[in-house]
Amino acid sequence: MYAIGYDIGSSSIKAALVESSSGRKLSVVTEPKVEMGMIAIENGWAEQDPLDWWKHVCTATKRLLEQNNIDPNEITGIGISYQMHGLVIVDKEGKALRNSIIWCDSRAVEIGEKAFHAIGSQKCNSHLLNSPGNFTASKLKWVKDNEPEIYKKIYKFMLPGDFIAYKLSDVICTTISGLSEGILWDFKENTTASWLLDQYGIDTGKVPDLVDTFGRQGNVSKKGALESGLAEGTPILYRAGDQPNNALSLNVFNPGEVSATGGTSGVMYAVTDNLSVTESSRVNNFAHVNYSPSKNPRIGKLLCINGAGIQYRWLLNNLAVASYDEMNELAATVPIGSDGVTIHPFGNGAERMLRNANLGTRMANINLNNHTKAHLCRAALEGIAFAFVYGMEIMSADGIKPKVIRAGNDNLFRAEIFSTTVTTLIGQEIEIYDTTGAIGAARACELHQGDFDAFGKRILDNDYVMGFQPAKNKMAHEKAYHKWKTELESMLEKK
Description:
Layout: E1 2-8, E2 13-19, E3 25-31, E4 47-48, H1 50-67, E5 75-82, E6 88-90, E7 100-101, H2 109-119, H3 121-128, H4 136-146, H5 148-152, E8 156-158, H6 160-169, E9 173-174, H7 176-181, E10 185-186, E11 191-192, H8 194-200, E12 209-210, E13 214-219, H9 222-228, E14 235-241, H10 242-249, E15 257-262, E16 266-272, E17 284-287, E18 299-305, H11 309-318, H12 324-331, E19 342-346, E20 360-364, H13 373-397, E21 404-408, H14 411-414, H15 416-426, E22 430-433, H16 437-443, H17 452-463, E23 464-468, H18 475-493
Parallel strand pairs: 1-5, 5-14, 9-12, 15-21, 21-22
Antiparallel strand pairs: 1-2, 2-3, 4-7, 6-8, 10-11, 13-14, 15-16, 16-18, 17-18, 19-20, 22-23
Helix pairs in contact: 1-6, 10-16, 11-13, 12-13, 13-15
């Protein structure tokens, strides 16, 4: 028997098939073949048609079943991971009333800031663990203020993963973890933050019903089966946003465990059982997948670095190099500290961890007689690694004490210079696993039975690749990081 996991991204939909008994990954497919686009009617806006996600889910499912010769009746569960913070609104017939306002849309920033000042930092921090920010609740307020005729027709609002579950099952529901990522969960009162909705003038009746993160959330309906190729009655057993799900995929559930992602942007996601926050303007706090208000108050602290892998990709596109492997080999010919060359990789927009400063990328201390593209490659890897270390310092100030760091087998973490720099300066081993969010979502179908130890063992048995240990002599790394950090602080002072 098998489980299917979906990862609903903004660039593509991934679907994974795993063997239920062992968690062994069998196949992963991606749809569409070309990255999905975003609709940007104005600068800073980003929308997608949620029906496009559904169409690609259906195509991916049929491909997965056909290519692996799987009878739909052999699928015992469905897990869903999805792009966080998006807004989907539907009428009473379940029809989407407009495009989804997705995670990277910034139109509601001012709305969130006004609410934060009106409500006060003390209440927001103690009840929401966050500022209302540019999250789902604020995006819904934007619709209310700017598209009142559409707002009047809203029956329920949803997150992207809720919408896919609805299309499969014809049931509208969400999770505590989902509400928390929309800044709609009151951690102090253990209920929906109705007072924030009141602040925004939003009817609490538009909030979906709650279901458990792990458990039977609904069954594939007749219509969902016809469109997707799945069997009617197949249970949906798991749902979570992409970053909590990435942590789950890496067996990160307990205080002190940290998951790291090194894609276009970088993410440090640390689990804690502490509800106090001191860095809510720079670090987001969400209910982790195993959060339970009374028994297990697990919080996922998320720090995002916009300028990460995109910096290395920019060099790949603009230097005379053929691949990342060639860049890594060039970087290895240069000593720690890149002979003084520094790169601050903040060229992908405002950085929340830098209090929304928009610094741009800075390449400094280049001597045209002595330095080469090899120095730029090393300085880029070190600069991105230093940004991760700087982020961990912020999280440490917010109470995080890392015991283990686990990362996926992506381009950055495959680079020995990058991983060794991070692990040496943080002082913790980095474990590398070959897995994806879609695989994690499929495996999570088994977690409604509550056996987290067996789940973790499957990840270790199936996915472990290698570990990076801190260098014994870290003086050179510390010297290079101190230089980079001093330059960063000077840049911030000038802003």
